Amino acid sequence: MNANILYSNNQIDYDKDLCEYIPGLYRLIDLCKDDYSKGFVDKTIVSIESLKKLCNNMVPLSFKSISDVNFTKLNSISFRLIGCYGNHTLIARLLLNKKIIRKKIYDLLIISQPSMDKSSLSPGIYLLLINPNLGLIIHWPEMGCYEANVYLQHKKNMVNLHRYLTKLTDHQLCFMSEEDLASFDWHLEYTNDDEQDDFKIRPGFKVNLPHKIKTEINNQMKNVSLYPIVVEYITHQSFIIRQLINTASHSYKITSPVSTTQFPIDLRNKLKDHYLHFDRHKMNIYELKLFVKYGLEMKDELFSPLRKALAAAKKRHEIKEHQEISAVIEDIEIMNQIAMMKLHSYYGHFDISLSKINISDANLNRIQTKYPEVESLIEEKVKINSKNWKSMKKRYNLACIIIGNIFEKTSKVKKNDDRNAKSMIETLYDMFADKETDLHKLMEKYTQQSILQNSASACDLINYNNLNNSNLNKAKQMTKNMLDAEFVQKLVNSELFEGHDDIKEKIKSAFFEEYHEWKKNIFPHEIRKILPKSLLIQQLEYKLEKEYEEEKQKIEKKEFERICDDLEYKYKNGSMRLSVLNVIESYNYFIINYEIEMIQPNQLQISIYELSLEKRILMDHICTSFHIDSQVYDFRKISQFDNKFLLILYNKKMLKIEIFFDNAQQLALNFKSHLIIKPFKILNTDENFIIAINEPKGLLAIYNTKEVKLDVFSFDDNRSRLYGRNANIQLSPWYNNNIPNIRYFLFIKNTEELCFVENNGRARIFNLVYLQFQPTMCNFPSNLMNVLSSSDGSYIMAITKEILQHKPDVDSIISTDIEKQHDYNSDIKEINRAYVYYHKNFSDLVRKVIDLPLNFKSSEFLQMSCVNSGQTHLISLDLQNGCLNSLLVKITPEKSYMRKKLNDLINVYKSMFEKYPINTCINPIQNCPLSLKIVLDISDDDNIEEYTEKFEKYISLMFKNLKDSTKKPASILKKFSTSVITFQECDVENANFQKKFLSEYQLGEWIIQLCYLIPIQIAVVRNNLFQSLKDGLSLNENYLSELKGGQHVDIMAKSISLGWYEGIFKHFGNKKVKVVSSMGEQSCGKSFMLNHLVGTSFDGSAMRCSAGIWMSLVNTKEYIYVVLYFEGLKSPKRKPQEDMLLTFFNTIVSDLILFKVNVIYRLALIKNQYTINENMSTIFQKFQDSVKLFESIPKMLQQTRLCIIIKDVPMRDKDGVSKEVQSILGKILAEKGENNFITRMYGGKVEILPWPIFNDIAWFESLSKIKTNLDKQESKYENAITFLQNTKTIMAKLEILDLNSLNKSLIL
To answer: Exposed/middle/buried for 1165, CB within 10 Å: 0-12, 13-18, 19+?
Structure first.
């Protein structure tokens, strides 16, 4: 499609979603915030409206609703598809070059960020139809998602979306710019074995700290528990000094809400050991009265002088007010007389009704002095401002001018006799009295009439017309310049009307009538405006009231001071001050704010020093200090995130972790200013915990050392909130149900892995993606003093303090192999050593041993950090000399945290295959080989063959490392093909290109495949109820208004909708169905196992946020496999009945249940017997509790096969553990008889499967045993339609807890 067809040349204002403006673009899969996670976790959804539009555009009326799609009709359309991902600017340029979009949309796309307040394209999977037979499947990325240190949620979204891209297309194009290529680390996939000789260490910087810091550090050396701490942060350098501040008194502001009866009691308690003080600036006399009356319970004599002084002031005020108001009224009367006097002087010769007013000089002078502007205001108001008067003046003046001109002209032609003059005067009056309002027309009328009457020439007529405009302007000016008094006098004395008194009287009468109207109605109102009696009195009263209030305040202030002094003298006993700030009365209680001086217990002062280093020189430092109450808080951890510090304290009184997150200045302000301090996050736990922080990934982990439990938290995008990512991970199964003595607990920086180090030096790495420990362990030296991760996570340093018999060279740094001997002198007895272990091949193999310099004595102060754009330094504080020292650590090739890497453009395949299956057991057809074509936008295309070779080598090594680390079956990766072309050569519309690199798909089948990818949530359990979800999105409540009689179950079942899957089941109506499900405890890898067995795309971490049942489908030649995922049982938030409802649904619906459990066992060597922990017995009891729900269920529904999968059992323990579990089951059979859960629920089809340890090749080989069980298992359902109807009926029955008649409602 051509953008010019869709768009005109007019400017277009685009809405926020650019998808609507790109022709042929359809959103397939969208990212949205999950409501259940409060917006912290992204989940993927199929975009219904966009897919509906696609279907109906391709085949009209094929999409009627989400559950009614005609896939058969859609299959009449076939097209070729290729996937596109990578550099979003190049993808946008491809669309621009193809004329699919215009330049403005291109400009918006290249800065596209949904969080910005601009038009953008949201991240997701899109279909772009270039023509009806060709489409691009575009993974439009979140900005920066391919960078090495991207926010964790973006990384997960990237992997999931790439999974969908590779399931929707067999061939993908990866777009890379020249800058992307320059940021690609070709050595990233090489193992550390190839690099072990390239580990180098040499002196770093030595920064002498200011004298003040040295003094503070040395003062703390006496108290070992308060040693300084180098703040954990990989790109900035900061440290803190802790100091114990002795007991002192401090003032606190407190608020006491008390009732009338509680007030005096509360006050007496507060006055113990305190003297009373009143805050004169914040309290007032009214609040003091309340305090004295209700708090001190004193009589009213204290306020008697105040009342007398106020009464006297009030009397003086009233007398003065009466006198001054009377004077104002008299003044107004005189000013009215002045107005009438002015009126007489102006119009007395015109209006004989006006009489002369006499005002005494004394009164006149007084008014002029007291109100200096009033006379000029009156003179202004005496002017006649009537609109009609002004119009009459202008008409009269105009008539006089016109008649004068006519008279002058005609007098030259005719004899100027009396008859001619009379005619002119009559014409003047006619013109003045004429009803014509348009003066131009009026002038034209009388000018033409006069010329015709006097036989003037046409030339005269033209001359008269030319004079009209001038005459009108002259009349306007005369009217404006001539005062009304002058005009009236001129009119009365005019000689123009001599001999024509009747006409003069008519004109005078007209003017007098208008004047009289003005004098009667307008003039009095105008005078009242400038002489408003009420306003003047009101202003006077306001002035007097203000004077009275000021006097009152002076009296009250004086008396307030006196009363406060008296009370403070009376209550002067006490060593500390109780200051009353204010008193608020509210209904039947009071709120009193005090500032109370109290003896403060020992405080812990924390001083944060933020250093600014440039080229190893201390350029500047900022010190921020604040106190925390050591009786309330224990200091636990501090770390830095950019310019903010993450401070973790343990509240010993509340038994909570309180996390504070802000810059140092705001932290100090928070602790200094508020008695009640508001933390960033509060977590409930006991005091038995240690903390690990991973700033690059925004992760925080808390390990409970007593409960052997792990909780992981993650920051959101802008680090404004901290949410739970992994909760209640039980680690005791990996420690044989013992409580390990974990001494060090840390993140491998820049990864999602945690390192647990025990007291004896044994170290294990726990992966947060798989929720598993790595199978390999490492034994650090037992005399550990510290364990650190490098900034980029490439290696781990174990720091020890060791006794030596020989002295090293004091100024040297010695780096040796472990076998190398040293020739030391005997004076030095101990030295700090660093043992280096590479993370990638974590094992007992020590790669390097470093003898640290003698000024690196205190291993507690060591920290890894990046300085000067990526150099990795081991930093330590030299307490004795007050220095900050470092060692520069370098690995070649450099793996710096600061260096921007874009390897995930390719490594996304590795990340995807780590999380999701490479080969699937159930449906080998899914195992299609992938093809990747890397599209490079480079100026020099001569190196394409070289880049092809380099990428092939890199990808080959990447997949080898993948197979070595995961032990997954990966035969299909041998067929993975890689090629490289330039951006200029990339022509997807070329027929040969399409034939070679684009697969052909039927639209209907392809949309079905799309729908398979996204599991939907079909039900939740809440408040002991089973609740169905409509279309996987909302609670199914529409049926409530439709219930009728006994048909309510049928109505409910029909109202339940399984979204996309409804239409798919109808499309494959006669196909057989098998249902396999996964159930079990939290965080035991249920979704991972399902995905690798069946080929689904369950994302356990995303689904963990909303408990319930999730469904996905896999279509094979013979069966539709319905795959159910159940959120973990034994959740502390879930009630026993809710677990029973889930178990019942699973058992009735499924053909095969995979029940995964963490079982802890021990081998008793003496008796050669295995002992299973109580966890297994508890699980079996839960099954037994569910038996009562099956009493009325027909036996043919009780044919589900249950596979109990015992997690992480080594091969040597397999038989022993299996026998012990069977022994427990045997006891249940003996105790419960025929009513045991094995018989009643599963018809005896229960199998115990001890499962190999994760990352063992046997783990994946064992999946074939489950496939065998599934193949043997007969399906409960004749076809897909039967499954759909039965499942919805069961869901409806469970909603109303009606299970008795279930057999009557199902198709058996």
So the answer is: exposed
